[in-house]
Specification:
The complex is a heterodimer of chains A (371) and B (379).
Chain A lengths: L33 E10 L7 E11 L4 E5 L6 H9 L7 E9 L2 E2 L5 H7 L4 E4 L3 H4 L6 H13 L3 H14 L5 H5 L8 H13 L5 E5 L7 H18 L2 E6 L2 H7 L2 E6 L2 E7 H6 L4 H9 L39 H4 L10 E2 L5 E2 L8 H13 L1
Parallel strand pairs in A: 3-8, 3-9, 6-7, 7-8
Antiparallel strand pairs in A: 1-2, 1-4, 4-5, 9-10, 10-12, 11-12
Helix pairs in contact in A: 4-5, 4-7, 5-7
Chain B lengths: L8 E14 L5 E16 L4 E5 L6 H8 L7 E6 L2 E2 L5 H8 L2 E4 L13 H11 L5 H15 L16 H13 L5 E5 L7 H18 L2 E6 L2 H7 L2 E6 L2 E7 H6 L4 H9 L5 H6 L2 E3 L36 E4 L2 E3 L4 H5 L8 H5 L19 E3 L11
Parallel strand pairs in B: 3-8, 3-9, 6-7, 7-8
Antiparallel strand pairs in B: 1-2, 1-4, 4-5, 9-10, 10-13, 11-14, 12-13
Helix pairs in contact in B: 3-4, 5-6
Classes of the chains: A alpha/beta (371), B alpha/beta (379).
Chain lengths: 371, 379
């Protein structure tokens, strides 16, 4: 670990994220809650080559902001979230770079301090609610555990608070539900219970890792509504990890698209969906069937699969599947990877031959030239 | 022998009930899960019927009952004029050659210890097709080619492939016997987004080339809309609406279909911000104890005080080919009835003298664009 831990309470660095935020949101500030800087996660196994799952990722979230980490399975989005939360095992994992929560360095921080933060100031909701709840402990005990641990409540106070929390996330008849076990709840209700646990200490950062993937669409709509409400009401910074572009379109302010462990495109959601620049982003959008599109319009898939990615050291990992790929995408000069570069206001792009959009092409070029 | 205008598959009032057993020594049957409860549908040759619904609505059970992988409790499945339920032994086996299935989980449905050659030749050998070793080898290469896998795949095992490639193997195996009907149960839901489109396109291409008839079962409305000619929406074991794909998506009439479609996220922030969401309250009721009357009435934003709770609606034809099972479908279509909106909750309007009265009290139904309406206290 190269970066020294900052003492608790020190003021966070005053860097402001790119882009500007719409007014009228009292909770929003430009001071990031979470700053991830050049994070790398490498899994090592004896006798085998090390695997770099996350390869130099940087992003930040401010209060009341929702950012999306989007990518397909294996792109490193979940490992990023586990690294931020300090939930990766110590053995066989090397973490580099820096993760600052409120200016405090978390990479290499001791377990006791992480434990104090986790559940209190930063919380996480996982994809599969059944395997993230303890099957032999009633829901109530699991929710109150957080309150007893972090908020120093008495058992009675905690029980009342748990009832209130379950009610807030829309679980009917919360007093009865608190006595029940996870298997007695439906999938949507388990996910609500998990969100209730995450909200118990009004965290300032919530990481939601595919929170609706295991749920039906009507339940998914309920959960997304709940998250939206949470961000607006309490100013929680939300990091949404998902593969579903529809979820991103409705929820996230800023989107980071990941591929093979790196961020390949960052943009405001309107910009990203209207004018994707990375061929991978464009390919994803073209390959999703849309409910509001006509029938029979053929889908344009991305050829190959994520397994075809080549190491970043040899060029652009997406090049083997890319229609825009040219010779300089694969053969790399001096072994350096394709850099993530400024691509207009609030946008960053890792691509040598991006998609051109006639209406803004001139502006983007001008911006590039001005730089 | 086959009449061209006769549907390839006709399902009539199909029911599949699973008994719920209790007790240690005696298996007392204490009730039934009505997984499929009276579904009728027919699929024309060369077309695709899409069946959508949420988990637990019985759509997969219906697909399996058509192939008799589960025994139907009642009702009739007619395949190309033959009653499938009446078949047994060798005749059933021969009939199954013409009805094949593609499963959701390609890794789970392929034997991990068989290489691709063995996986693909098994159905041919089992049915005595392919004409000897050389014939089978040639047929397998043809199949691999049809699903876009290299010949080098033959010696490899399922775990060596990516999810999309495995699904291609599953499809190759299903079309090996040149079936007439292909039942695809969630064919793409286990795949990555970029790969889903490849498999969807492959299914369409194969259909065109071989003239197959599809029954596609999926929860993803966008995928179903994309590949289906006719779409049926299931809720708690019965069909609530059926219409040609475009009609259904342009003008859904059943409240459940409307809610389902409004809940599907669209990858376009402009659309996402403008669209109105109909949020349903609560979860799917238990199919072991379905609600009385209309099964959707417990969650329906358009629920009326009469009929909905005590009278089961029948599937009726509102427009040619558009079937709906809702008492108030016409009123909902014509905008006479509206779902409970925030304004109505605040100023409860006096019921109009003629026509059905709008719902006044309906706890827990959220309606809104970006934020739920707070629950109203019951008066």
């Amino acid at each position: 670990m190269t970066i020294e831990s900052l003492p608790p309470g020190s003021s966070p660095p005053g860097s402001s994220p790119p882009g500007s935020w719409p007014d009228g949101d009292a909770h929003r500030t430009d001071v990031p809650v979470l700053e991830v800087d050049d994070l790398t996660v490498t899994f090592t196994r004896r006798g085998e080559q090390a695997t770099r799952a996350v390869d130099g990722i940087s992003f930040s979230v401010t209060p009341g902001e929702t950012i999306g980490l989007v990518g397909e399975s294996g792109c490193g989005k979940s490992v990023t979230s586990l690294a931020v939360m300090g939930l990766l095992p110590r053995r066989g994992v090397r973490i580099g770079g820096s993760v600052r929560f409120d200016g405090q360095e978390l990479v290499g921080a001791d377990q006791r301090r992480l434990r104090a933060l986790r559940g209190a100031d930063m919380a996480m909701v996982f994809q599969d609610p059944l395997s993230s709840l303890n099957p032999v402990v009633p829901i109530g005990t699991q929710v109150t555990e957080v309150l007893l641990e972090h908020r120093g409540m008495s058992r009675r106070e905690a029980a009342d608070e748990a009832t209130r929390l379950l009610d807030r996330v829309g679980i009917p008849d919360p007093t009865r539900r608190l006595k029940e076990y996870p298997h007695q709840l439906s999938g949507g209700m388990r996910q609500r219970a998990l969100i209730a646990m995450a909200l118990a200490c009004s965290p300032r950062l919530l990481i939601a890792d595919e929170p609706t993937t295991a749920l039906d669409v009507t339940i998914q709509a309920q959960i997304l509504e709940l998250l939206r409400e949470l961000v607006v009401d309490s100013g929680t910074a939300l990091v949404m990890i998902t593969h579903d572009l529809g979820v991103v379109a409705g929820l996230c302010d800023r989107v980071h698209v990941m591929y093979a462990g790196k961020i390949i495109e960052t943009a405001d959601r309107h910009e990203l969906f209207a004018r994707p620049r990375q061929p991978y982003t464009g390919g994803l959008l073209a390959s999703v069937p849309r409910l509001d599109a006509g029938r029979g319009v053929p889908l344009t898939p991305i050829r190959g699969s994520a397994r075809d990615a080549i190491p970043w050291a040899e060029g652009c990992a997406f090049a083997p599947r890319c229609d825009n790929a040219q010779d300089d995408c694969l053969t790399e000069v001096a072994g350096s990877t394709v850099p993530l570069e400024y691509d207009g206001p609030g946008r960053e792009l890792r691509c040598r031959h991006p998609l051109e959009h006639p209406s803004v092409g001139a502006g983007a070029t001008a911006a590039g030239a001005a730089r | 022998m086959t009449a061209p205008d006769r549907p390839l598959l006709r399902v009539e009032d199909l029911q599949v009930h699973f008994p719920i057993k209790r007790g240690v020594f005696f298996d007392r049957t204490v009730g039934h899960v009505r997984a499929v409860d009276g579904v009728s549908l027919s699929i024309d040759r060369g077309t695709t019927y899409g069946l959508v619904g949420e988990s637990g609505c019985g759509k997969s059970t219906l697909g399996r009952a058509v192939l008799r992988l589960v025994e139907p409790t009642a009702g009739r499945v007619e395949f190309d004029g033959t009653d499938v339920a009446a078949l047994g032994g060798e005749t059933l086996r021969r009939m199954r050659r013409r009805m094949q299935m593609v499963f959701q989980d390609p890794l789970g449905s392929l034997d991990p210890r068989q290489d691709v050659e063995s996986l693909l030749s098994e159905p041919l050998r089992a049915h005595g097709l392919g004409g000897g070793k050389a014939g089978i080898a040639a047929r397998i290469r043809e199949l691999l080619d049809a699903v876009g896998l290299p010949a080098a795949a033959l010696r490899r095992y399922p775990h060596e492939f990516s999810g999309g490639q495995r699904q291609r193997i599953g499809i190759a195996r299903a079309i090996a016997l040149e079936p007439d009907l292909l039942i695809a149960d969630e064919p793409v839901s286990a795949l990555d987004v970029s790969v889903q489109a490849q498999v969807v396109n492959l299914l369409e291409e194969i259909q065109e080339r071989l003239g197959l008839t599809y029954l596609v079962i999926a929860h993803d409305l966008a995928v179903v809309r994309h590949i289906s000619d006719v779409v049926g929406v299931m809720y708690l074991g019965s069909l609530v609406e059926q219409a040609p794909s475009d009609v259904l998506y342009d003008e859904p009439l059943h409240p459940y279909t409307r809610a389902l479609m409004s809940a599907v996220p669209v990858p376009d922030p402009v659309v996402e911000e403008r669209r109105e969401r109909i949020l349903l309250a609560g979860d799917l009721p238990s199919p072991a104890d379905p609600p009385s009357g209309c099964r959707f009435h417990t969650r329906c934003p358009w629920r009326q005080e009469t009929r909905c709770a005590d009278e089961a609606p029948v599937l009726r034809e509102l427009a040619p080919g558009h079937l709906v099972s809702c008492h108030w479908a016409e009123e909902i279509r014509d905008g006479v009835l509206r779902p409970r909106s925030p304004e109505e909750a605040l100023h409860a309007t006096a019921p109009s003298a003629e026509g059905p009265r709008p719902v006044e009290e309906d706890d827990g139904i959220f309606l809104g664009r970006d934020r739920p309406v707070p629950r109203q206290e019951q008066a």
